[in-house]
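Re: the request from the purification team.
They wanted to know what the chain is likely to look like in 3D before they choose a buffer screen. I agreed to run a prediction and write the result into the notebook, where they can find it.
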Amino acid sequence: MVSILGINIGINASVCLLIDGRVAFAIEEERLCREKGFMGVPAQALRYLKALFPQEIARLNCVALSNLNNQVFSKSNFLKRYQDRLTPPPPPSLVERGINYLQRM
């Protein structure tokens, strides 16, 4: 039996346990701490997983970690860095729409 623990450290932190290639358990930290978009180490999710699957955790074959090279350490820094990607672009002005219309003709 092959058991793999996946841990997502960062925004929307989560854990996942795969047993023989099938998802046996997966949960995001925000479900347990009640903080939408939780960012950091999913400590409560790991404790919950360990309580539900103690034998599988004791016999893990592999642990996969994500976001180890992430230079963003806080949610506020993340939002500052990616604000342009998170904010939709403003709608085109009337002049821009007119120019686009003429270009398609």
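For the purification team: The radius of gyration is 21 Å.
Please add any questions underneath this entry.
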